[in-house]
Amino acid sequence: MKIETKVLHSGYKPENGGPGTIPIVQSTTYRFDSCDHVAALFDKPTEFMYSRFANPTCDAVEKKIADLEGGVGCMLTSSGQAASLLSVLNLCCAGDSFIASSSIYGGTINLFGFTLKKLGIECIWVDVDASYEEICKAIKPNTKCIFGETIANPALTVFDFDVWAKAAHDNNLPLIVDNTFATPYLCRPFEWGADIVVHSTTKYMDGHAVQGGGCIVDSGNFDWEKAYKATGKFADMVEPDESYHGLRYVGDFGKAAYIVKARTQLMRDFGCYPAAQSAFYLNMGIETLPVRMQRYCENARKVAEFFKSSDKIAKVIYPGLPGDKYYERAQKYLPNGTCGVISISIKGGRAAAVRFMDALKLACDEVHVADIRTCVLHPASATHRQLTDEQLVAAGIDGGMVRFSCGLENVEDIIEDIKLGLAAI
Ligand SMILES: *Cc1c(COP(=O)(O)O)cnc(C)c1O
């Protein structure tokens, strides 16, 4: 099936006379009639037993997302942050390192650079445009994985999958990719060599700004046993898990080893799982993902062109626009569009940007992105507020920069609104 069909039909098959939409199973527990049955589940978790491990509503949505990305399994989490955290902790422990592209979401930069450091895990930053040799050179004997972002929030760089996947695999390392901005409608990282995908489903996947969430998807493609034999890494993927009655992830679950371990070890211990109700909302968002993504891309393309034509705008960053630094790379990996987010830099710096934003009537100033409604954010006074003007420049952000997230309104109304903003400068 094509993705437009999968978003509606994967993951849940109504029984004869059963409910047509995924039922919300608002229950923490599942009842069994014998001790032996429960004991067997503790030896090998194959059925629902407690909703921290798995819940039928979440399970249906997980199966759908796994199908959309082309993976063997998926685990929903309570937020995108939780997904990024667990995706790395499933491979790294104190004393290990991993590599991350320097162009990733700011929240992930804090998590990797500060919080994981406190846990004894080192993040080695490598430029998003690094060559194969540069990436390989950064890898240390204790490096366990590589992390990148398909279209980075907010820098809008495009990840060069071919280079990063080859560097990862030539060194027996799995590649994890945050696919939040692209969604599986615009890019399926497994088709380009990624091994694990994470999402903040809070953004386009849910799409309606009604609840936060995240997920980890396993391609099933990484050969843990081979990497273990070659390097001694990933022993806990292959050797018996003493915290789980000697469960063997590769031995007992084959291609789904990574995602089963994430659930049985990490979700068991950290407990950052979503409510069934949240999974239900997420599913409703996903059902319209293809039509929404098409419209986001169409609107953003027209809005980017409009910005480009204005003499009040110093710079327009949109990888779907010819002439953008990442246009060619986007054409290769994201031929159907590059999401609805545009970065612009307004001539006149901070003061002009604030006047532009405050004059907008339709686009709302909010700490969100990829909303169904057009929204804007001024990084210099919000997410990057603590930085001086010099530090902002070093971070690739200037006082005049505005992150413009196109919604699904009629594009003519969005452009009329932008005209109001520009007139106020
Ligand atoms: C928002 C975001 C996250 C974090 O997701 P939350 O759901 O807010 O925790 C991670 N990655 C990217 C690319 C994001 O945009």
Mean pLDDT: 95
Largest pleated sheet:
7 strands, mixed
How much helicity do the residues have? Answer: 40-55%
Structural class, judged by helices and strands? alpha/beta
| Poorly predicted ranges | none
Counting DSSP E segments of at least 2 residues, the number of strands comes to: 12
Pfam families: Cys_Met_Meta_PP
Keywords: Lyase, Pyridoxal phosphate
GO molecular function: cysteine synthase activity; lyase activity; O-acetylhomoserine aminocarboxypropyltransferase activity; pyridoxal phosphate binding
Protein name: O-acetylhomoserine (Thiol)-lyase
What this model shows, in words?
Its cofactor is pyridoxal 5'-phosphate. Keywords: Lyase, Pyridoxal phosphate. The chain is α/β, with parallel strands linked by helices and 425 residues long. It has two domains: 3-283, 3-Layer(aba) Sandwich (Aspartate Aminotransferase, domain 2), CATH 3.40.640.10; 290-423, Aspartate Aminotransferase, domain 1, CATH 3.90.1150.10. Helices cover 41% and strands 13% of the residues. It has helices at 3-9, 35-43, 56-69, 80-89, 106-118, 132-138, 161-170, 183-186, 224-231, 235-238, 249-253, 257-270, 276-287, 289-309, 327-333, 349-359, 389-394, 411-423, and strands spanning 73-77, 97-101, 122-126, 143-149, 175-178, 196-200, 214-218, 313-317, 341-346, 364-365, 375-377, 401-405. The strands form two sheets. A seven-stranded mixed beta sheet has the order 1-7-6-5-4-2-3, sandwiched between helices. A five-stranded mixed beta sheet has the order 8-9-12-11-10. Strand 5 (175-178), helix 8 (183-186) and strand 6 (196-200) form a beta-alpha-beta unit. The mean pLDDT is 95. The protein binds pyridoxal-5'-phosphate. Pyridoxal-5'-phosphate (PLP) is lined by residues 79-81, 84, 105, 107-108, 149, 153, 178, 180-181, 200, 202-203, 212, 214.
